[in-house]
Structures are given as structure tokens and as C-alpha cells.
Amino acid sequence: MISVGFVGSTGVGDVARHLLAMGACDIKVWHPGEVCEEDELPGERVELEDLAEVTLIIFAAPMARCRQIARQIGDVISGRHVIVHTLRALEPGTLKSVSTILQEETPTQRIGYLGGPMLRTDIEAGHPASAVCASLFPEVHDLVEDALMSGSFRVYRSQDIVGAEICGAYARAIALLSGLADALSLGSSLQATLFARGLAEMSRFVVFRQGFERTTFGLAGAGSLYADTHLQGSVDFQIGRHLGAHPDTSADALVERFGPGARESLQLVDTLHKSAERADLDLHLLQGAHALIQGELQPDQVVQRLMTLPALYE
Q1: Angle of helix 161-183 relative to helix 299-307, nearest 10 degrees?
Q2: CA dihedral in degrees (271, 273, 276, 280; nearest 10)?
Q3: Residue 60: CB partners within 8 Å, gap ≥ 6?
Q4: Can you tell me the distance from the alpha carbon of 112 to that of 140, in angstroms, rounded to the nearest whole number?
Q5: Which of 230, 166, 160 has the alpha carbon at shortest distance from 195?
Q6: Could you give the CA distance from residue 137 to residue 110 in angstroms, rounded to a whole number?
């Protein structure tokens, strides 16, 4: 039985805990500075120091406290440990990826990212699903596969951790616009356009961040975006749908309605937009999502701006 540490509990991190339990892993859960009496997900609650006993750590701490929590973990682990994170965000201000933060704050360099279309409803129902593990280290892939792969869950490999992390983050901004279009009942053609052009924009941003263009069209990019915008959609999709109907909703009201992930979603769009501006990248969908959350444009104006752009080459 593989002993795996789990830090935090956010979004896709909950899915990872279910997958670990399905793989008969010994899960040691550390909730940093939190009292989680209602936590019914699989795993034994442990203290921070107990993470030193495991080899693989799944890192799913809130983005707002990512660096602080990484520093705490760094005090108790060594270079022999492997950390795989599930966060789809960049650090506000520095624009750094989570893998970079983990490299800076912990003694291990063996870091990976786990992402893709892992829907909790499918995992809990035992339906077939998949994800991609991105890392430069073969031993990271080996550990993740041993811990997670089963007859109903498949893990693919990628060496492009930079591109995979950016894909996971950028898909959230496009999902917000897709939710807006859904709220306005603008049809499948616009949704398809947002999906296709969203991937095109994503690939440009990935290349700018020195990732591989092809990563955009794999599970980390296209897979995540499809899952984010399918059926009920992700939290980001739901936020976009809510803003489409109630554009004057404040950030605090969105957090009250959708949970802490709403604030992270808004911060992420702002962070991506600032990064694109600094690089002089003209990313129209990202600009539209940013104008919406900033209240600079009404929902119908966002769509009108996108539809009246000058003709562009694909």
C-alpha cells in the first residue's frame, strides 16, 4: 500500500482524494490551520510533521495561502519527497506558477501537476475518466500512476509542466465567458467559437510562458475546457452565467454564493490579464472576461465587442 500525503481540500483536490482511496492508498491528510470537522472524504487526519513519513504529497491548498503553506511543508520534508499539485491558478503579483512556488519554498525539485477532465460526479459514479500528470521527472510519473491508475481511471504523461499549468488556469477564464454566453442563451455556434478561439488564445499564452503549443490541445487544455463548460460547468462557468444575468453582483456576493473559489476565479482573470498586458499580447477573449468582472462592460457589450472585431486570420 502506497502512503500518500494530502494537503488542503479544494476542487479537483477532492477528486484526487477519492482516486487515492480507490487505489487503496494510505492517505494522510493535513488541513493547514483549518478545523474541518465535517470533512468526510477518505484519509487519516495527521499533523504537519507526519508528512515526512510519506513519499508522495498531493498539494491542493488554497491559492491565497499557497506560498505560506508550501513554506510550512518545506520545513518538514526533504529532497526525497515528490509533490504533485492540482491548483489551476497563478500567484497574484508575481504571476508565478504553483510549481515555481513549490520549488522556491521546499527542498524538493521533484514536482508535478495533475490536471484535466476529472469530474467528481464521474469519479464517484465509477465512470471512466482520465488526467494528465506533467513533470520533468520519470519517478513523479511512476508514483502518480501507482497511486491513481485503475480500471476506470487513466493517467497520461507530459513533460510540459509549464504549459499544463497555464492551460489549466487559462481554461478557467474561457469557462467564465462560456457561462456568460449560456446565460444570454446565445446558442451553440457561439459556444463552439469560444471553445475553438479560446484554445487558440490559450496556445499563444502557453508559448509566451515557454510551454509547448501542443499541450493546449491535450487533456490539460482542451480536456479541462470541455469539462469546465459541459453540463452544469465549473465554478468559473457558473460565475460567468450568474454575471450574465446579474452583472452588478459584487465580489463578496459571488463568494457568498459560490464559495472561496469565486474570489480565486476573479483574481485569476485579473492576473492573466496583467501578464498579457505586460507582454503586449492581444488576447480578445481574456480582455472580454476581464472587462466583465471589472464592470467595464455589460454582458451584451462583451459579446458585441467580440463579434465586431476586425477580421482575423485563424
Answers
A1: 110
A2: -140
A3: 6, 7, 8, 9, 10, 11, 12, 13, 14, 16, 85, 86, 87
A4: 7
A5: 230
A6: 6
Give the other-Cβ count within 10 Å of 232's Cβ: 9
Q: CB-based burial of residue 127 (10 Å sphere; 0-12 exposed, 13-18 middle, 19+ buried)?
A: exposed
**pLDDT value for 8:** 83
Q: How many of the other CB atoms lie within 10 Å of CB of 280?
A: 7
Q: Check if 3-159 and 162-307 are the same fold.
A: no
CATH class in words for 162-307: mainly alpha
Give the per-residue pLDDT at 232: 84
- Round the CA-based radius of gyration of the chain to a whole number and report it: 19
The residue to which cell 491548498 is assigned: 61
Query: Taking the alpha carbons of 243, 246, 250, 255 in that order, is the dihedral positive or negative?
Result: negative
Instruction: Provide the pLDDT for residue 314.
Output: 84
Sketch the domain layout of the chain as residue ranges: 3-159, 162-307
Q: What are phi and psi of 300, to 5 degrees?
A: -65, -30
| CA distance readout (Å), 9 to 52, 62, 86, 101, 174 | 19, 8, 10, 18, 24
Round to whole Å and give the CA distance between 266 and 251: 8
State the Cα–Cα distance between residues 77 and 254, nearest whole angstrom. 37
pTM, to two decimals: 0.95
Residue-wise pLDDT for 110-124, tens only, equals: 999 999 999 888 988
CATH number, domain 3-159: 3.40.50.720
